[in-house]
Design goal:
Order of helices and strands: HHHHHHHH
Strand content: under 5%
Radius of gyration: 24 Å
Number of strands: 0
Shape: elongated
Distance between the termini: 70 Å
Oligomer: single chain
Helix content: over 70%
């Protein structure tokens, strides 16, 4: 049974190497449930697991000709790709979050040096808070909501997309554009 299954998967991978879309679809249908489960185990979030699975099958489409049955069974090869895509996705998500919080951390460090409140820093922080409030009011409602949730509740882009019931790309665009508008607006108050 296992040999029949491996033979079927190897045949499909060979056909995918010949750029056969129907073979890719069949390969996906036969292997996606197990591969999705592996991605979900590594990533812990269904939407991230879906992204990793999609990236994996794009890689299968591009690299099926490189598969060597003598080196590993088909599911081991596919599983290794899912694991690699999942770990890459985790690293990317971590880098995105670090980049988003880095600017705020730097600003806070500059503003709030030392443990004791300094009247000058307190006054400056109040002015900056007022300026930030003014700039946030200039954002479109949905951009303001996305930026606020991202920073005040520390939600990831995927979590925001799920909470707002919007596509991930839309949320990322709103946050990026909102932050750009805030930077430009805050520069006027500096």
């Amino acid at each position: 049974m296992l040999d029949d299954r491996n033979a079927e998967l190897m045949t499909l991978i060979d056909r995918v190497a010949q750029q056969d879309p129907a073979a890719l679809r069949s390969l996906y249908d036969l292997t996606a449930p197990k591969l999705y489960g592996l991605a979900l185990k590594v990533l812990g979030k269904p939407e991230w697991a879906e992204d990793a699975l999609q990236d994996t099958f794009l890689q299968v489409w591009r690299s099926a000709a490189d598969y060597r049955a003598t080196l590993s069974p088909p599911m081991a090869w596919l599983g290794l790709m899912v694991r690699s895509r999942s770990l890459d996705l985790l690293r990317r998500r971590k880098a995105e979050r670090e980049h988003l919080t880095e600017e705020i951390d730097e600003h806070l460090a500059d503003t709030l040096e030392g443990d004791a409140p300094d009247p000058m820093n307190t006054s400056l922080a109040s002015q900056q808070a007022w300026a930030l409030h003014q700039c946030l009011d200039r954002l479109e409602h949905k951009q303001r909501q996305a930026v606020s949730l991202a920073y005040l509740r520390d939600l990831s882009h995927s979590e925001l997309a799920e909470q707002l019931r919007l596509p991930l790309g839309t949320v990322k665009t709103w946050i990026r554009r909102g932050l750009d508008h805030l930077r430009q607006c805050m520069a006027r108050y500096a």
